[in-house]
Description:
Layout: H1 3-14, H2 21-35, H3 39-59, H4 64-68, H5 73-76, E1 82-85, E2 91-94, E3 98-101, E4 106-109, E5 115-117, H6 118-128, H7 132-145, H8 149-166, H9 171-184, H10 205-218, H11 221-225, H12 229-244, H13 248-259, E6 262-265, E7 271-272, E8 284-286, H14 292-305
Helix pairs in contact: 1-2, 3-7, 7-9, 10-13, 12-13, 12-14, 13-14
Amino acid sequence: MKRADWQNRLQAAASRENRNPLSRFALRRAARVIGGYNIQAADAARRAAVGEEVNKQSATGRDDEIRGLTVDRAAANEGDMETGARSDGHTYSTNGLRRIHSNGSLQYKTLGGGWVNEGAVIEGHRRWGRDHYAQQAALSYEMRKALAEDDCEDLGTRYNQLAEGVWGMTDTEALGAWNGASYENQNQHLEYKYTNSTNGQMDTQDRRRGFVDEVYEKKGSYPVAQMHGSTIKALQTAYVLAGEEGDIDQQQKIAAIAETFMHEISATGDPKTPEGAGAPTGQRMTSTPGAAHVAERVRELAEMTGVFHTAPTGEHANPDNNIPPPAPPRNPTRREQ
Length: 337
């Protein structure tokens, strides 16, 4: 076990309420002796160096070995294979995580949804298989590379088995790698900061509240529009679950977030930012400088929260008012949640 792990364990033991003062003092002293005052600085320097190496290699376009590091071959080799066809007429068989092309080449699906050849997977694990800093850098890279919403969701649900089962991380190391990668990608995938790394879900009310509050308190419409569509989808899910939990304040905050994307339509048909209440019913639109898919999710959120056809009231985030926001027109399916 690494010195940093022992230091973390001793510090955690010293923080338990049932410890007497002398035991706490002894445990903290032992943590200092084992860790040393420079251990965090050394860890940070090592992590930065590995991250720079990974980023330089990926910048050359040769990222297949880095991405291959995030493949769990044992899991990918399970499951029945089905036949599929590519647009170029070639066929392949796949189980969703592994595919064999008609020319015999074997590829595996990375954590972020890319496909790499078996040789890249083997070499990636040979080179970085026990380097936890490189593994965190690869995880962060996969978060950036994930495109489809399904791939973003799969990344969260598949991560823990990869980290602990293949990379050999402890619970603490797996959580630390997830937290580090999610902070690096918070401007694109803010939802990962509040995701449970063991199951890929924002599975508690506190997690969802933290996520919504950060968007509400700190993010304007432009930075939110630059995020992935999965972030907006997470707001939709949080809105529905807040309604099921009777958390009207959270629903109103999400409605206020949706309101920041709303614009009036002038007599000439040009959008303009609303100034106060009074926009005619039906004469409003969502406007976002983000990707087309993000714009679609933003409009869905505006319709779901009831602000699409309603003039702003300024009461969306007032926990004391007694006017609940409109109920969503539908609940997301289990897959969408």
